[in-house]
Amino acid sequence: MRLIYLDNAATTPIDREVREAMGPYLNEIFGNPSSVHQAGRRARSAVDRAREQAAAAIGANVSEILFTAGGTEADNTALIGAALAHSHKGKHIVTTQIEHHAVLHTCAFLQETLGFDVTYVPPNRDGIVTVDRVVQALRDDTILISVMMVNNETGAVQPIAGIGEVARERGILFHTDAVQGVGLLPVDVQRLHVDLLSISGHKLHGPKGVGALYLNRKVKITPYQHGGSQESARRAGTENLPGIAGLGAAIERAAARRDENLAAVRACREEMLAVFRERLDNVEINSPEDALPSILNVTFKGVSAETLLMNLDMQGIAAASGSACTSGSLQPSHVLTAMGLPVEAVRSAIRFSFSGHNTVDEVREAAGKTAEIVKRLIRR
């Protein structure tokens, strides 16, 4: 049975070109980038090249790219590092109720362990957090705002540029988790007025276990990982050489093919919706109309998401019931709950997510099989 993979918001398959870019650093080029001999210099050259590729993709300076072990570490580094470095100015942080757990749990740590005060801004019914609601949450002692670029469960695109403009005017640091946006949306850190921005390699058809944090050169953070002086003394630890080379190749490739990939995922989303609307009368769309088309969140009324996912898996279709970190949990989606959806609708919600590797034909097949399964489960 062939797999129809529609869980790209969780992870993406590695592109062939990315694997090829990583190959030399899994074999003949293996030196430590911190070593001064020839083997080390060859490794350092690869890290420098990847830093240039990442910086070019988001309009940053090469000195502003800090490599991490993934998007989660990038979020942790941004929030904890910025909070500790600027706590003398205040201890209030503003984020949203719909963030990835890498942000929510880090904010909880700052709140419960280090005594920071966190305000969690709710979204509108469409899953979008407005600039006005963020502004209303600000205080004189606010030092940091963190709002994701694209929600990983609904695809809702947040007004990052507007929030960034307010943050810049008020002298408040602004972080965005751009894991789901980079590669499909045009990202320019200057235009967006962001101070910190998180990237993950495996959401870009790159390898797992590597990410990056854009850190504005004027912004100081307090490192929380200690050891060597790697990454300009901001993140200790020997660099993941193959992973960093892969991330560089993946983000460069994603930026170059952004329009092509966006058109491809939009065609997939439209095809799936067309099939659902034609064959089902119990489907509700939870993603906003102008969501990033790579993510489609739908509720099949009267059908358990857990049961539906099991049946889809038996048919070779991979989808999810929530974010990647909670898809194995029976806890209802915190995102859909914050949007005000009834409990029954939340427990019947499925996320399909697409990439440029998907085809309209396979999505049509998956949508048809999904409709058949839904009808069968309702008849029980």
Task: Characterise the protein shown here.
With 380 residues, the chain is α/β, with parallel strands linked by helices. The protein folds into two domains: 4-12 and 258-379, Aspartate Aminotransferase, domain 1, CATH 3.90.1150; 16-256, Type I PLP-dependent aspartate aminotransferase-like (Major domain) (Aspartate Aminotransferase, domain 2). 42% of the residues lie in helices and 14% in strands. The protein has 14 helices and twelve strands. A seven-stranded mixed beta sheet has the order 2-8-7-6-5-3-4, with helices on both faces. A three-stranded antiparallel beta sheet has the order 9-10-12. It has a two-stranded parallel ribbon with strand order 1-11. Helix 2 (38-58) runs parallel beside helix 9, helix 3 (71-85) packs parallel to helix 4 (101-114) and helix 10 (258-279) runs parallel beside helix 14. The mean pLDDT is 95.
Topology-level CATH name of the largest domain: Aspartate Aminotransferase, domain 2
The figure for the number of domains is: 2
In N-to-C order, the SSE pattern is EHHEHEHEHEHEHEEHHHEEHEHHEH
> Which CATH class of the largest domain is shown?
Alpha Beta
Radius of gyration, rounded?
21 Å
CATH architecture of the largest domain: 3-Layer(aba) Sandwich
State the low-pLDDT regions, or none: none
Q: Considering the protein shown, what is the CATH homologous superfamily of the largest domain?
A: Type I PLP-dependent aspartate aminotransferase-like (Major domain)
Strand content: 5-15%
How much helix is in the residues? 40-55%
Net shape: globular
